[in-house]
TrEMBL record:
Keywords assigned: TPR repeat, Transferase
Region (Disordered): 1-25
Signal sequence range: none
TPR repeat copies, ranges: 100-133, 302-335
Name of this chain's protein: Sulfotransferase
Organism: Novosphingobium pokkalii
Keyword Transferase: yes
InterPro entries (alphabetical): P-loop_NTPase, TPR-like_helical_dom_sf, TPR_rpt, TPST-like
Domain of life per record: Bacteria
PROSITE patterns reported in the protein's UniProt record: TPR (PS50005)
Length: 707
C-alpha cells in the first residue's frame, strides 16, 4: 500500500514538496521523511500504536503529508479507534480524490463501523482508480455477498484473484514452484501470508506447493480457507476437489464440484470432475447425464465418449457402451483404452478391420513415448482379439499370447512391486494372528454385522459371488470399496512415522475401544455407497484378504467370503487383464503365481487359527464348484451370511444393478462353463506360472499338506 501511495504522488513530487514544506526530491530532509515513513509502515502489522506515534511525529514535522496521514488512519483502524480513523481518512480522501489507497482504507473503516453502503462506494472508487488492489476487491466481494449481491461478489472475487496473481512475490513463488524449487516457493508464499493472512491467491498457491511436497493434509485447510474467503475462486475450489477426492472425503469433494458446475455450466472440465465423483459414489446415471451434456455441446471429445462408455457398461447398457467406445476409437484410434474397453466387455469380438486399425495405431518405437499406457492397452486389446480367433484357429493363440506378453511387460516396467514384500507381510500376519491372539480379542470391535467382505484374487469369481448376494432382498451390492485399505494405510503411516516398531506392534497395542472406533469409522466411511435400507452390504475389494486379521479385530461379526478359482485359470485370467488401477502383482506370470501362493498360505494359516479360537471362520466359495452345483453353493453362501434362501439369487443375471468390474457383462447372463478351462489353450507358455505356484497348484482346491 505504501508503494501504491508512492506511485500516486511520484508524478508531481516537486509540487507536493513545495506545498507540504518539504525540500524538492533529492534533499536531505526528504530522505529523512521517506525513511521515517518506511519505518512507520513496517510497524503497522505488529505494533500499530508505535506506527501511529511515528506517523504523528512525521506530521508534526511535515503537516498534512498524505502518506503520513494514510498511516495514521491505518493505525487508528488497527487499534479499533474507528471513529477517529474515519475522520482522518475521510479528510484525506476528500483532499486526495485520486488516491486509491485513501479510498480503500476509508472503505475498510466504514465496513468495520457497519456503514456497508458507504463502504461499498469507497471500495468501488478505490478499485476503479487502481484495479490491481487485490485486498480492496476482496473486501468489496465480502460486502457485496453480505448484501445478497452474489453475482457482484463473484465478479469481485475474480478481479481480486487476478489482481493478487500479479503480485511480484506470488509471481516469484509460482516460478519457483514451476522450477521444482518447492522450499523456496513455500518460504516466499508464507512471507506473503504473514503480511496478508487472508489472501486467497496466496492460500491457494501455498496449498499447491504443499500438495506437490506430498503434504495433502496440510494443503486441504488452506484451500478450504481460500474458497471460504473467495467462493468464486474456481482454481482453488478445483484443486480442493482433486485433493479431497484422493481421500475419504468424497461427499465434501462432490459438494465443491457441484458448486463449480453451477457457477460455470459450460465448463467441460468441471463437469468431468463432478462426473468422476458421481461414479465413485455409485451414481452412474448422474455421471451419464453430465457426459451426455458435454457431448451435446461438443461431440469431438474422445475422452468423454470413453467415460460415457464406462458408465453405460456399468449400468448394463451394453449397446450404448459399445457405441461410445467405438466413437472414442474413431476419433482417436491411438486411444488404447477405447480398444481395450471394447475387448474387456468380453462379449464383443474385434474383427479383422479392428485388428488392422489397432496395428496401424501402434507406434514405430518400442515403448510409445508419452502414450506408453495407450500402447500397452492396444497390446492387451490385440491379445483379446487373437484369443477370440483362437477358438476357431488354434494358431492364433500364439499371437494372442505374444500381444498379452508385450502389454504386460510395458505395464510392469512402470510399476513398483516386490513379491518378497507380500510374502513377508503374509508371514507377519500368520505370526500375529494366532489362536490365542484371536481368542483374547473375541468380541472386540464394532458389533455391526452389516459388511460382507468378498476377498481373494481378481478374476476368481468374486463378481459372480457379489451378484448372487446382491440379488437377495436383504443384501445391497456396492463395489470394490477402498476404505479398509485406507484405514490400514493410515495405521501403517503411524509405523512409518516411528510411533511403533512395526504393524504387529501397533495392532497388538490396539485396545477394545480403539478397535470399536475403527470399525465404526469403516461403517461411516462406506455409508455414502449405500443407497438402500437393506441390512447387509457387500464390499468386493479382493485385496482385503491382506487385512483379514484387522477386519476380525474391528468388525468381528462381519461375514468374510473367500472366492477362489483354479490357480492357472485365475492367474492367467488376471495376467491378461489390464486393470485400471492397483493389482500391481498381475503383470508378470511368476509374480502373480507367487501372489496367489502367498494368499493361499495366509488364508490357510488364518483358517487354522480361527478354528482353534472358536470364531471368525471364513466361508470359501470354489468357482468350479459354484459352476457345477449352483443351487447347493448358493444355499451354503446365504447360510454363511445368515439370510434365508431366495430364488432370485439363482436368477442373479436378471439383477440390473450397476457392476463396475471386468466381469460386468458375464454376470448379466446365466453361469456358463466356457471359462473354467480357457487357460488350456495357452498351456505351452505357462511354465513360469506353474513353477511360481509350486505345491499350491497340485493341492487345489485344498492347500499343501505341510502348511
Amino acid at each position: 500500500m505504501a508503494n501504491e501511495w508512492a506511485g500516486q504522488r511520484g508524478a508531481n513530487t516537486a509540487q507536493q514538496a513545495a506545498r507540504l514544506g518539504e525540500p524538492a526530491k533529492g534533499g536531505a530532509a526528504s530522505g529523512t521523511v521517506e525513511a521515517a515513513l518506511g519505518h512507520a509502515a513496517r510497524l503497522l502489522a505488529r505494533q500499530p500504536a508505535l506506527a501511529l506515534a511515528q506517523a504523528r511525529e512525521i506530521l508534526r514535522a511535515v503537516p498534512g503529508h498524505p502518506h503520513a496521514v494514510l498511516i495514521e488512519g491505518q493505525a487508528l483502524r488497527a487499534l479499533g479507534r474507528l471513529d477517529e480513523a474515519r475522520g482522518v481518512l475521510a479528510a484525506l480522501a476528500a483532499a486526495q480524490p485520486r488516491a486509491a489507497a485513501a479510498a480503500a482504507e476509508l472503505g475498510l473503516t466504514l465496513a468495520a463501523l457497519g456503514a456497508v453502503p458507504e463502504a461499498i462506494a469507497q471500495l468501488r472508487r478505490a478499485v476503479a482508480l487502481k484495479p490491481d488492489m487485490a485486498h480492496a476487491w476482496q473486501a468489496l466481494a465480502g460486502l457485496l455477498r453480505a448484501t445478497g449481491d452474489e453475482a457482484g461478489a463473484a465478479r469481485a472475487d475474480v478481479a481480486g484473484i487476478e489482481a493478487a496473481s500479479k503480485d511480484p512475490v506470488l509471481l516469484r513463488a509460482a516460478m519457483a514452484m514451476g522450477e521444482g524449487r518447492l522450499e523456496d516457493a513455500e518460504a516466499q508464499v508464507r512471507a506473503r501470508l504473514a503480511a496478508w493472512p487472508a489472501d486467497p491467491a496466496a492460500l491457494r498457491l501455498l496449498g499447491e506447493v504443499l500438495w506437490r511436497q506430498g503434504e495433502i493434509e496440510a494443503a486441504v485447510p488452506l484451500l478450504r480457507a481460500a474458497v471460504a474467503r473467495a467462493p468464486a475462486f474456481a482454481a482453488a475450489r478445483e484443486l480442493l476437489v482433486r485433493l479431497l477426492a484422493m481421500g475419504p472425503d468424497v461427499a465434501e469433494a462432490l459438494d465443491h464440484a457441484t458448486r463449480l458446475v453451477a457457477d460455470d455450466p459450460e465448463h467441460g472440465g468441471h463437469a468431468m470432475l463432478k462426473a468422476s465423483l458421481l461414479v465413485r459414489i455409485g451414481d452412474q446415471e448422474g455421471a451419464r447425464d453430465l457426459y451426455r451434456a458435454i457431448l451435446a455441446r461438443d461431440k469431438g471429445r474422445p475422452r468423454v465418449w470413453l467415460n460415457l462408455g464406462h458408465v453405460e457398461k456399468t449400468i448394463g447398457n451394453q449397446a450404448a457402451a459399445i457405441e461410445a467406445y467405438r466413437r472414442a476409437a474413431a476419433l482417436d484410434p491411438a486411444t488404447g483404452e477405447a480398444w481395450w474397453s471394447l475387448a474387456n466387455l468380453k462379449t464383443v469380438r474385434l474383427d479383422k478391420a479392428d485388428i488392422a486399425a489397432m496395428r496401424a495405431a501402434l507406434p514405430h518405437d518400442a515403448v510409445g513415448g508419452d502414450r506408453a499406457e495407450d500402447v500397452a492397452q492396444l497390446h492387451f486389446a490385440l491379445g483379446k482379439a487373437f484369443e477370440d480367433q483362437s477358438r476357431d484357429d488354434p494358431a492364433a493363440a500364439e499371437s494372442a499370447f505374444a500381444h498379452y506378453a508385450r502389454g504386460n511387460a510395458l505395464r510392469r516396467s512402470v510399476l513398483d512391486y516386490d513379491p518378497a514384500r507380500t510374502e513377508a507381510a503374509v508371514a507377519s500376519h500368520a505370526a500375529l494372528f494366532t489362536a490365542p491372539f484371536l481368542a483374547e480379542r473375541a468380541g472386540w470391535g464394532c458389533p455391526a454385522a452389516d459388511p460382507i467382505f468378498v476377498v481373494g484374487l481378481p478374476r476368481s469369481g468374486s463378481t459372480l459371488v457379489e451378484q448372487i448376494l446382491a440379488s437377495h432382498s436383504q443384501i445391497e451390492g456396492t463395489m470394490e470399496l477402498p476404505d479398509m485399505m485406507l484405514i490400514a494405510d493410515r495405521l501403517q503411516a503411524r509405523v512409518e512415522e516411528g510411533e511403533f516398531a512395526d504393524m504387529a506392534a501397533l495392532l497388538t497395542a490396539l485396545g477394545p475401544e480403539e478397535c470399536r472406533r475403527l470399525g465404526e469409522e469403516y461403517l461411516e466411511r462406506t455409508r455414502i455407497h449405500r443407497k438402500t435400507d437393506r441390512p447387509y452390504f457387500v464390499d468386493k475389494m479382493p485385496n482385503n484378504w491382506q487385512h483379514l486379521g484387522l477386519i476380525r479385530m474391528i468388525l468381528p461379526y462381519a461375514t468374510v467370503i473367500d472366492a477362489r478359482r483354479h490357480p492357472l485359470g485365475c492367474c492367467f485370467s488376471g495376467w491378461k487383464q489390464y486393470f485400471a488401477r492397483g493389482q500391481v502383482f498381475s503383470y508378470d506370470l511368476s509374480e502373480i503365481g507367487r501372489y496367489y501362493a502367498a494368499y493361499v498360505r495366509q488364508m490357510a494359516e488364518f483358517d487354522r487359527a480361527a478354528a482353534e479360537a472358536g470364531h471368525g471362520a471364513v466361508h470359501r466359495v470354489i468357482y468350479e464348484e459354484m459352476v457345477a452345483d449352483t443351487p447347493g453353493q448358493v444355499r451354503a453362501l446365504l447360510d454363511a451370511v445368515g439370510v434365508p434362501f431366495e430364488d432370485g439369487c439363482l436368477a442373479f443375471w436378471q439383477n440390473r444393478r450397476a457392476v463396475r468390474t471386468a466381469s460386468s457383462e458375464q454376470v448379466r447372463q446365466p453361469i456358463y462353463t466356457d471359462a473354467v478351462e480357457h487357460w488350456k489353450r495357452f498351456e505351452p507358455w505357462l511354465d513360469p506360472l506353474r513353477v511360481a505356484l509350486g505345491p499350491v497348484l497340485d493341492s487345489y482346491p485344498g492347500v499343501p499338506a505341510d502348511w
